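About this split. The held-out portion is used to measure sequence recovery: a designer receives only the C-alpha cells and must propose an amino acid at every position. Recovery is the fraction of positions where the proposal matches the reference. Here is one held-out target exactly as it appears in the evaluation file.
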C-alpha cells in the first residue's frame, strides 16, 4: 500500500503546483512527514493527517477518497495504532500555518471546556458510585451497516471482512479508533446507557487526544430540522449556543465555530437520533450521508432501522448494539448500593431476597416481570434511587404481583416514585444543600416543563424559550402590559419631581400606553409572528479597556435607532399634546395642531437620542470569552450583566443626547412651528424619563434576559405553572438528578422520564378541568 500512497501523494502535490514545504505549511504538519510519506519511510499515517493533506491540496471528492483508500489499510487487519508524531511533529525552520495554529489554540480551549463540563456531569449522575454499570455491546445485523470495504476504506478488490468491535464501557475509544472511516452508530433501547457511553467516549477521547485531532463534542441531535438548516450550519449554531465565545470572528471572516466545523476541528457525537421528529429522520440520514465527517451517532434500534429502510445506512459507518444487563450484573451492583443489614450477616442487604427470587424462580410471574425491567441501566438506577438511597423502603415490594401485574406497571411505579423520592423531606437537610420543595408541587412544575418540551418537540430546556410554549398573542400582550406598567410607573415617579402629580399621572398613562403599544407591535413583528424566541446575546459590553471586535456594524443600528425613535416620538408627542390641550381647556382644533407640532418636535428629539445611543452600544460590544457559558446559569448571568451594562450606557447617553439635542433643535424648530415653550428643566426631564423608559422597553421586549424576566419570572409563576424562584428550582432539580446539563441547556435525565412527567401533567390538568379547578 505504501507504493500506492507515495506516488499518488506526489502526483497530487505536483498537480496542485506545491512544493513539499508549501504543502506541509498549508496542512499544518511537518515537512518531514510529507517527505516521509512520499518516499515510503512513513508507512502508517494518521487518518487525520491524510485528511489535512487532502484539505490543503483542495482535492475533489473522488481524489480525496482515492488518497484515503491508499493511505488507510497498512496491515493485514487495518487495526494498527497510529504514530502520534505524524501531525504534532515540530519542524525547525518551517512555520506552521497561521490558520491551523490559531484554530488549534481555539480547539484546545474548547477541549478544556468540554472536558470540565462532562466530568462534572458524570460526577453529578453518580456514574462511578460505587462503580459504573457494566455497559456492553455486540455487532448488529449486517443490513444496518455499510459494506466493510467502505468502513475499512479498502481499495477496489480488497475483500477483508468485519472488524471485531465488541467491548465494554471503558473500551469505547479503543473500539472507535479501530474504525478507519471514523463513523460509528451505537444502537440501544430506551435506558440502555447510550448517553452514558457518549459521555465516557468524550472524556476518554479527550484524555488521549493529540493537538491536531478534532475535539469530540456531544450534540443532542433531536433538535435538528434537516429540512430547515444544513448539518454543518446546525453544528455551528449549537456550538455557538453552548460556547458563545465561538461566535467571535475567526480566520477568513467566518465565526470560530464555523471555522472549527469546516476544518474538521470538531468530532460530532450525535446523541438521540431517535428523538428527531418521525418525518425528519430520513432527510436527516440523507444529510449525514452527504458529508464525510467522522462521527458517533446514538439511536434506538427501531427508529434507526426504519430510517435505513426508507433510504440507506449511514455511509461508511459501523454499528453496534447495547446488550442487556445480566442477573450477575445486578447481583454485583445492587447490594453495594444499599446499607448493610443491622445484626446478623453484615454482608446481607435488603436486595438479597429480591435477587434470590430472580435467581431461584426466574420463570415465576414476579421474577420474570422484574427481570424484564432491570435489564437497562436507567431502570436499575431508578430502582437504586427509590429503594437503596431511601431509608425504610423495601425492594421486595417490587415482587408484589397484585400491585404490579406487568413490567410496564413496574416501570411506571419506578418513574412515579423517582421524583417523589428525590424530593422527599430530609431530616438531615442542611442550609445550602437542597432547598425544600413540596414533592407534589415539584412534580407538577416538572410536568409543566416536560409538557413544554413536548409541545416544542425538543429535548432541550432552554431558559430563554420557557415562554415559547404560550400562545403568541399571550406572549405579546403580556410583554406589552409589563412594559406599559413599568414605563408608566417610571414616568410618574420621575416626572413627579418636575411637575404636579395630577399632570404626571396623565403623562405617565400616555407614556405607558404608547410604549406598551409601540414595543408590543415591534415584539409581534420581530419575534412573536415568527413564533421564535429572542436568542441570548453572544456579546458583552466592554465599558473600559481595549474593545474586542464588535459583532455588528454601528451604522445599521444607528439608522434603526433613528427611525424607531422618530416613530415613537411622533406618536408620544402627538398624544401628549392633545392631552395637554384637554388639560388646559384648549379647543380641539388647537389641541390637534399643538399635538402635531409636539409630535414632530418629540420625534426629532427621540431620533437624535436613540440613533447615536444604539450605535454607541454596538461599538462597546465585544465577543464573549470562548470558555464562557459552560452551563445554563452562567449563560443567564452573562446575559444579565450585558443587559445591566446596556442599561448603564443607554440611560445617561440617551438623556444627555436628548437634553443637548433639544436645546440645539428648539430654536430652528421654533422658526418652523412657531413659539415653543421649552427650558432646561423640560430637557432634563425628557432625557431622564426617555432614557429609563427606552432601555426598559428594549430590554423587556427584545433581549433574551428581558423575555425570561417577563414570561418565566412573572407570568408563568403568576399562573402557577412554575415557581417564583425558577433558577433555584432548575438548579435544585439538576442537583437532585432529575435534570442534566447539556451545554447551555437543561435536559431531563432521560427522555422516558420526560414523557412520563408530561403525561402525568396532562392527566392532572384534565382532572382539574373536569372538576373546575386549576393546578396547584
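Reference sequence for scoring:
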Amino acid at each position: 500500500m505504501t507504493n500506492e500512497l507515495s506516488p499518488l501523494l506526489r502526483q497530487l502535490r505536483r498537480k496542485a503546483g506545491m512544493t513539499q514545504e508549501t504543502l506541509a505549511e498549508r496542512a499544518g504538519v511537518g515537512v518531514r512527514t510529507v517527505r516521509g510519506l512520499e518516499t515510503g519511510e512513513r508507512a502508517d499515517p494518521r487518518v487525520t493527517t491524510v485528511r489535512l493533506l487532502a484539505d490543503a491540496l483542495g482535492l475533489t471528492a473522488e481524489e480525496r477518497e482515492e488518497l484515503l483508500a491508499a493511505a488507510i489499510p497498512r496491515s493485514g487487519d487495518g487495526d494498527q495504532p497510529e504514530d502520534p508524531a505524524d501531525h504534532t511533529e515540530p519542524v525547525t525552520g518551517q512555520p506552521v500555518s497561521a490558520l491551523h495554529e490559531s484554530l488549534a489554540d481555539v480547539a484546545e480551549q474548547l477541549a478544556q471546556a468540554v472536558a470540565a463540563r462532562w466530568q462534572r456531569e458524570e460526577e453529578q449522575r453518580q456514574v462511578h458510585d460505587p462503580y459504573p454499570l457494566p455497559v456492553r455491546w455486540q455487532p448488529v445485523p449486517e443490513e444496518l451497516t455499510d459494506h466493510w470495504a467502505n468502513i475499512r476504506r479498502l481499495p477496489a478488490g480488497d475483500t477483508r471482512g468485519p472488524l471485531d468491535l465488541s467491548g465494554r464501557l471503558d473500551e469505547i475509544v479503543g473500539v472507535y479508533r479501530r474504525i478507519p472511516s471514523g463513523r460509528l452508530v451505537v444502537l440501544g433501547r430506551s435506558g440502555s446507557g447510550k448517553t452514558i457511553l457518549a459521555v465516557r467516549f468524550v472524556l476518554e477521547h479527550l484524555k488521549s487526544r493529540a493537538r491536531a485531532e478534532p475535539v469530540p463534542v456531544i450534540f443532542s441531535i433531536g433538535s435538528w430540522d434537516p429540512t430547515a438548516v444544513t448539518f454543518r450550519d446546525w453544528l455551528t449554531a449549537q456550538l455557538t449556543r453552548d460556547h458563545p465565545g465561538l461566535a467571535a470572528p475567526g480566520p477568513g471572516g467566518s465565526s470560530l465555530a464555523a471555522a472549527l466545523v469546516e476544518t474538521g476541528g470538531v468530532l460530532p457525537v450525535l446523541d438521540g437520533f431517535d428523538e428527531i421528529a418521525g418525518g425528519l429522520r430520513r432527510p436527516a440520514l440523507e444529510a449525514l450521508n452527504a458529508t464525510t465527517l467522522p462521527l458517533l451517532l446514538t439511536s434506538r434500534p427501531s427508529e434507526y432501522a426504519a430510517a435505513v429502510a426508507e433510504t440507506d445506512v449511514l455511509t461508511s459507518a459501523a454499528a453496534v448494539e447495547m446488550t442487556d444487563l445480566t442477573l450477575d450484573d445486578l447481583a454485583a451492583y445492587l447490594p453495594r448500593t444499599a446499607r448493610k443489614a443491622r445484626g446478623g450477616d453484615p454482608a446481607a442487604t435488603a436486595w438479597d431476597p429480591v435477587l434470590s427470587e430472580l435467581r431461584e424462580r426466574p420463570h415465576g410471574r414476579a421474577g420474570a416481570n422484574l427481570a424484564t425491567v432491570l435489564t437497562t441501566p436507567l431502570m436499575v438506577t431508578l430502582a437504586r434511587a427509590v429503594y437503596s438511597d431511601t431509608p425504610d423502603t423495601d425492594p421486595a415490594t417490587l415482587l408484589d404481583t397484585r400491585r404490579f401485574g406487568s413490567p410496564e406497571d413496574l416501570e411506571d411505579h419506578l418513574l412515579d416514585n423517582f421524583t417523589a423520592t428525590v424530593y422527599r423531606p430530609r431530616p438531615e437537610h442542611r442550609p445550602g444543600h437542597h432547598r425544600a420543595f413540596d414533592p407534589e408541587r415539584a412534580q407538577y412544575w416538572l410536568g409543566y416543563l416536560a409538557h413544554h418540551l413536548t409541545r416544542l418537540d425538543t429535548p432541550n430546556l432552554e431558559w430563554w424559550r420557557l415562554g415559547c410554549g404560550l400562545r403568541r398573542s399571550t406572549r405579546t400582550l403580556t410583554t406589552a402590559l409589563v412594559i406599559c406598567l413599568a414605563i408608566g410607573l417610571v414616568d410618574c415617579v420621575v416626572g413627579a419631581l418636575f411637575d404636579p402629580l395630577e399632570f404626571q399621572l396623565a403623562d405617565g398613562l400616555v407614556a405607558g400606553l404608547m410604549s406598551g403599544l409601540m414595543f408590543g407591535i415591534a415584539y409581534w413583528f420581530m419575534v412573536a409572528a415568527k413564533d421564535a424566541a429572542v436568542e441570548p446575546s453572544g456579546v458583552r459590553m466592554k465599558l473600559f479597556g481595549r474593545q474586542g471586535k464588535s459583532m455588528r456594524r454601528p451604522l445599521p443600528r444607528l439608522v434603526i435607532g433613528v427611525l424607531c425613535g422618530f416613530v415613537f416620538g411622533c406618536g408620544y408627542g402627538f398624544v401628549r399634546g392633545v392631552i395637554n390641550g384637554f388639560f388646559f381647556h384648549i379647543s380641539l382644533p388647537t389641541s390637534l395642531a399643538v399635538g402635531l407640532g409636539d409630535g414632530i418636535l418629540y420625534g426629532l428629539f427621540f431620533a437624535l437620542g436613540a440613533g447615536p445611543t444604539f450605535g454607541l452600544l454596538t461599538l462597546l460590544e465585544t465577543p464573549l470569552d470562548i470558555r464562557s457559558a459552560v452551563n445554563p446559569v452562567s449563560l443567564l448571568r452573562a446575559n444579565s450583566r450585558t443587559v445591566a451594562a446596556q442599561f448603564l450606557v443607554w440611560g445617561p447617553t440617551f438623556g444627555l443626547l436628548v437634553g443637548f439635542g433639544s436645546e440645539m433643535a428648539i430654536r430652528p424648530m421654533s422658526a418652523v412651528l412657531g413659539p415653543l415653550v421649552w427650558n432646561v428643566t423640560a430637557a432634563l426631564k425628557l432625557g431622564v424619563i426617555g432614557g429609563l423608559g427606552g432601555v426598559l422597553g428594549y430590554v423587556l421586549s427584545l433581549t433574551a434576559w428581558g423575555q425570561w424576566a417577563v414570561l418565566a419570572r412573572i407570568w408563568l409563576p403568576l399562573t402557577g405553572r412554575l415557581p417564583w424562584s425558577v433558577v433555584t428550582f432548575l438548579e435544585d432539580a439538576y442537583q437532585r438528578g432529575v435534570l442534566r446539563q447539556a451545554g447551555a441547556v437543561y435536559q431531563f435525565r432521560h427522555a422516558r422520564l420526560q414523557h412520563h412527567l408530561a403525561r402525568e401533567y396532562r392527566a392532572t390538568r384534565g382532572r382539574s378541568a373536569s372538576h373546575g379547578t386549576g393546578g396547584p
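Annotator remark: The chain has four domains: 2-96, 100-322, 327-422, 468-702.
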